[in-house]
Amino acid sequence: MISIKRKENESASGMIYRFTKRIQQSGILREAKKRRFFIREESKLKRKLSAIHRSKKSEEMNRQKKLGLI
Q1: What is each CA distance from 10 to 16, 21, 32, 63, 70, in whole angstroms?
Q2: What percent of the chain has a predicted confidence (pLDDT) above 70?
Q3: 10: phi > 0 → left, psi -120 to 50 → alpha, else beta; which?
Q4: Which of 10, 34, 46, 70 has the greatest number of C-beta atoms within 10 Å?
Q5: pTM score
């Protein structure tokens, strides 16, 4: 946990500047961004089934377009 105490006669913007600098140096922000955008890899079977489902949906959409249903 990072804590910043206000120095005597320090402006609020100066304190915010010191805080952001301390956060960047600690690497907390970098780690938070990594965790935010981390995506767990799917199994091969799940990816394969998903691809099959997408292709069947696409074929069905094309068939309905040709028939004028869409």
Answers
A1: 10, 16, 29, 70, 66
A2: 100
A3: beta
A4: 10
A5: 0.48
